């Protein structure tokens, strides 16, 4: 700390001996300060983002300057001061701070060049940690002053240098005006003027979002508190404004009410057109939203309000009142005056987001209608059976599934008339009495239909047994999502040995499994799993075959979607009180009779009269739709912002624009450089290319116009956290956040979102705006932090009016400690019905995992999808067994164009894909570790071979020539020459074909 500096003590001693005082400080503090922004004219990563520009008028010697910097950061005395000679650009070593506090700095330094300008950098930092997750570390004070200078320097009795300006590296980093703090004396004077007040209100314009919660800005001292606010808006504009509340005492449950705004001649904007986003609104799933606003003593709370001016409003001055109501304290009316111009706002003002017009989007219900999304079909119900695309579900009289069937062919390219059952018997609960170990017998009067829509059918049932009542509410949606709310209420005290849910799978519908500590692949013989939410994002599993399966997850009424992708441990699952039951609950899976039984148990407990437990569970019936192989062959992604002619020349058809480039610089906020993006997309369309952009909601750029209005919502949108990260976040957001992805080239620093919240409403509206105004053809999702409700809405707005609405999802492998050991496909299965392609992804091991892992966790085929590979370019030979390549131009030495050429030369459009997993595949090998998938058309077939054998091997083909429609007498087997894949050669029909370890071949079989 500066106060302990030996030289500082010498200087102070000298000042006291000279009989000098500091009486001039008050005058210094009162001086008018000029705030400016540089044009990135210094290296912020070594000098910091802020400097004082000081003029010294002497010829030589020691300069002394008082800088009334009014800093918001805590403990400025613990941060380094760096002074630079503006003329020579050299650092000045002889520096002695006299007094450093948040209000001002009194600093001595050697004016090395004499008269002239000097720069004083007062928040220097260095970045530590990973480049994309930096830790801005502020430099501590250093003693560079020489002893001789400190002893011999003539100490000016008062400042002889003047502050010219306080300069930020750029306007984005500026503290002015809302982060320039009031002094303690100013705050004291303010309070003396308002004795006995419980709180003060500072109405504030939308152009100056309130940023600080621990300090008052100097601006408010100058303006003073007020009970009046005036503004101006166009007709049809959403006009946002703030009420800054400074709590002198703790405020509880602050609410805002509005009355009508009226002109002098009686024209009205109804009170219903005014709202407060901090207290009321609409949730992401279209439910009423209310929040309790509590303001601790001596803190500031920004209350954001909006006036939704009707487009039909007559011009004029509208006046009314907004009233602040804290519990137990006097209400305070704020007089509102809004001048409505004769101009009509374009698009409600949404095209000018710096006006905070888009805060209206936080309460949007856009695309919430439960309409059916292509390729799905409307639900149909007959008797107790509901039909949906490729699947049927029967309902038992107790409300639980009697049976689920799928109708997909094993190839997964079409539907069949032949049903495949998922269950051996109805899904059911067991309640086992503690006294005798016997099942309680339940009675049911049958289920009743609640709603019947094309996109959703819901029903309910009530079941009773001795001392217990079970109320069941359930719904099935058009995509195969089934939701059960199972409320168990105790009518009297009941002691139970166990409560279990049984999902009795047909063995043929439980060949594969993932979840519950299992990577995707063949289902183990026995699973014995226990809850561990603090470390594992696991609450269920998927069991299935390629053309029939079911994901189940266990929840209660307090379920909250956890964070994912590196952040699970910071916001893990909440243990469901019902299923978890402390540490007593778990899941076993294994053979029982004819079934593979998933036994979800909760353990011994006593329910007391009046107790209620929720044994909720969620099912997803797979697959979702047949795979679209033609889309796979014809839609080729180029995953980089690049010259469009160069992209077109590669043969790619869709450009993915990641963030962190000139037309999409800011992560998950593609609204600032949107005109550049539109120009690029317009040119792409003229060349026959489509363009998708990176945009999701896991984290949000600090460049978002709405950053501080969102911060005013507490933890609704931004997760609580330890802060830190890039310097901008520390200097302006201050604390209580999780620092996320950072792009050094743009200094774009993101903040983690909290999960499911109203920002998702904004996200849907934003996507709609991008479709309408920029012309995007879809989105690239890099992991997903929202649920299927938002995904459905996104798909609707992206595909409106014939837009292609292509969505592809990338995921890094989530099966690791930071992500809670969840399979990416398990985590995102609820989104699969709306995706067009998968890209799984970083940390997926394409070399050391078996074919069953590829099939279940990577390929997407059991769910009606196809995919691509990423890590190290993937394994092209193994990928082609599932119709996958890598993606241009992401990985070194991983160019898919040679494979694309094979597709084009062979003519893949219209072929029928028959995977190695299909028993009737007419081309097989004599080695199960070298499977064959074929792509069949009239008179020709492309055969993909891939080896999982531990060494080089040879295989022979077993071919059903009749099924292929090829005359064996005329058949030719050719391995085309493919760059970086295989050398061209010809094989006889019964040849032993060599296959290299970890590689494979593409063979073309045709008639001569």
Note the main attributes of this structure.
1008 residues; alpha+beta; ten-stranded antiparallel beta sheet; seven-stranded parallel beta sheet; 19 helices; 36% strand
Characterise the protein shown here:
- The protein is built from 19 helices and 64 strands.
- By secondary structure, the chain is of the alpha+beta class.
- Strands 30, 31, 32, 33, 35, 36, 38, 39, 43 and 44 form a ten-stranded antiparallel β-sheet that branches. A seven-stranded parallel β-sheet has the order 45-46-47-51-52-53-54. Strands 1-11-2-8-4-5 form a six-stranded mixed β-sheet, with no helix packed on it.
- Strand 27 and strand 28 form a beta hairpin.
- Helix 13 packs parallel to helix 14.
- It is globular, with a radius of gyration of 34 Å.
- Residues 1-29 have low confidence and may be disordered.
């Amino acid at each position: 700390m500066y106060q302990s500096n030996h030289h500082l003590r010498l200087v102070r001693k000298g000042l006291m001996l000279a009989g000098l005082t500091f009486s001039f400080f008050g005058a210094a503090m009162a001086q008018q300060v000029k705030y400016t922004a540089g044009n990135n004219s210094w290296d912020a990563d070594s000098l910091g983002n802020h400097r004082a520009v000081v003029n010294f008028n002497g010829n030589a010697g020691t300069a002394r300057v008082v800088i009334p910097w009014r800093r918001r950061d805590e403990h400025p005395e613990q941060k380094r001061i760096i002074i630079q000679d503006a003329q020579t650009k050299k650092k000045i070593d002889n520096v002695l701070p006299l007094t450093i506090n948040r209000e001002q700095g009194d600093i001595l330094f050697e004016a090395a060049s004499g008269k002239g300008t000097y720069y004083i950098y007062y928040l220097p930092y260095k970045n530590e940690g990973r480049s994309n997750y930096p830790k801005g570390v502020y430099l501590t004070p250093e003693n560079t002053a020489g002893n001789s200078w400190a002893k011999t320097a003539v100490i000016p009795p008062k400042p002889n240098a003047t502050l010219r300006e306080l300069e930020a590296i750029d306007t984005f980093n500026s503290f002015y005006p809302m982060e320039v703090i009031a002094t303690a004396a100013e705050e004291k004077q303010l309070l003396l003027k308002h004795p006995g007040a419980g709180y003060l209100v500072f109405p504030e314009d939308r152009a100056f979002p309130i940023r600080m919660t621990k300090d008052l800005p100097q601006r408010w001292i100058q303006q003073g508190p007020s009970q009046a606010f005036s503004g101006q808006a166009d007709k049809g504009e959403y006009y946002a404004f703030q009420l800054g509340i400074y709590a002198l005492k703790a405020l509880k449950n602050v609410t805002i009410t509005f009355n009508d705004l009226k002109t002098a001649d009686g024209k009205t904007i109804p009170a219903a057109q005014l709202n407060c986003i901090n207290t009321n609104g609409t949730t992401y799933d279209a439910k009423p939203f209310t929040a309790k606003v509590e303001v601790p003593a001596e803190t500031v709370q920004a209350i954001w309000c909006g006036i939704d001016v009707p487009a039909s409003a007559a011009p004029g001055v509208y006046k009314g009142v907004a009233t602040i109501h804290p519990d137990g304290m006097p209400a305070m009316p704020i007089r509102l005056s809004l001048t409505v111009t004769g101009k009509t706002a374009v698009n409600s003002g949404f095209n000018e987001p710096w006006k905070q017009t888009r805060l209206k989007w936080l309460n949007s219900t856009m695309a919430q209608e439960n309409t059916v999304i292509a390729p799905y079909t409307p639900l149909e119900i007959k008797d107790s059976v509901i039909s949906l695309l490729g699947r049927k579900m029967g309902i038992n009289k107790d409300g639980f599934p009697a049976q689920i069937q799928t109708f997909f062919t094993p190839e997964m390219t079409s539907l069949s008339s032949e049903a495949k059952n998922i269950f051996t018997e109805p899904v059911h609960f067991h309640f086992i009495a503690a006294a005798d170990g016997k099942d309680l017998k339940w009675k049911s009067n049958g289920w009743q239909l609640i709603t019947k829509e094309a996109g959703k059918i819901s029903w309910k049932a009530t079941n009773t047994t001795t001392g217990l009542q079970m109320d069941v509410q359930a719904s099935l949606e058009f995509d195969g999502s089934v939701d059960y709310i199972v409320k168990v209420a105790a009518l009297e005290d009941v002691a139970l040995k166990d409560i279990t849910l049984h999902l009795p799978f047909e063995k043929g519908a439980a060949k594969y499994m993932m979840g519950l500590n299992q990577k995707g692949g063949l289902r183990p013989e026995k699973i014995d799993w226990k809850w561990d939410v603090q470390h594992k994002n696991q609450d269920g599993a998927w069991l299935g075959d390629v053309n029939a399966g079911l994901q189940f997850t266990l929840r209660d009424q307090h379920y909250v979607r956890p964070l994912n992708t590196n952040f699970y441990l910071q916001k893990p699952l909440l243990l469901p009180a019902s299923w978890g039951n402390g540490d007593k609950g778990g899941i076993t899976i294994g053979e029982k009779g004819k079934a593979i039984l998933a036994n979800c148990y909760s353990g011994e407990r006593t329910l007391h009269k009046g107790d209620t437990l929720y044994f909720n569970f969620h099912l997803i019936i797979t697959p979702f739709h047949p795979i679209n192989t033609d889309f796979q062959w014809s839609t080729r992604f180029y995953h980089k912002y690049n010259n469009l002619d160069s992209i077109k020349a590669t043969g790619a058809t869709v450009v993915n624009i990641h963030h962190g480039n000139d037309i999409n610089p800011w992560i998950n906020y593609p609204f600032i450089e949107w005109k550049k993006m539109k120009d690029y997309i317009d040119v792409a369309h003229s060349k026959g290319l489509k363009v998708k952009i990176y945009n999701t909601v896991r984290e949000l750029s600090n460049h978002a116009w709405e950053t501080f209005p969102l911060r005013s919502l507490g933890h609704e949108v931004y997760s609580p956290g330890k802060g830190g990260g890039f310097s901008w976040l520390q200097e302006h957001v201050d604390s209580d956040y999780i620092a996320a992805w950072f792009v050094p080239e743009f200094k774009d620093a993101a903040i983690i979102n909290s999960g499911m919240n109203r920002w998702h409403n904004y996200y849907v509206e934003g996507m709609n705006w991008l479709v309408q105004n920029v012309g995007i053809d879809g989105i690239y999702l890099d992991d997903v932090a929202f649920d299927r409700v938002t995904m459905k809405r996104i798909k609707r707005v992206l595909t409106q009016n014939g837009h292609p609405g292509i969505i592809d999802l990338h995921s890094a492998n989530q099966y690791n400690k930071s992500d809670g050991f969840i399979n990416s496909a398990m985590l995102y299965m609820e989104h699969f019905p709306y995706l067009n392609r998968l890209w799984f992804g970083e940390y997926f091991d394409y070399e050391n995992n078996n074919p069953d892992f590829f099939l279940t966790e990577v390929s997407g085929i059991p769910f009606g999808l196809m995919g691509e590979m990423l890590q190290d370019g993937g394994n092209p030979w193994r990928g082609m067994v599932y119709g996958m390549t890598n993606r241009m131009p992401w990985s070194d030495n991983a160019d898919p164009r040679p494979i694309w050429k094979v597709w084009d030369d062979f003519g893949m459009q219209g072929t029928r894909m028959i995977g190695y997993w299909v028993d009737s595949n007419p081309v097989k090998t004599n080695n199960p570790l070298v499977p064959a998938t074929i792509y069949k058309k009239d008179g020709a077939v492309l055969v993909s071979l891939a080896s999982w054998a531990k060494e080089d091997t040879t295989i022979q083909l077993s071919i059903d020539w009749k099924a292929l429609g090829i005359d064996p007498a005329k058949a030719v087997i050719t391995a085309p020459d493919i760059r970086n894949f295989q050398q061209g050669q010809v094989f006889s029909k019964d040849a032993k074909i060599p296959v290299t370890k970890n590689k494979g071949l593409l063979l073309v079989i045709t008639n001569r």
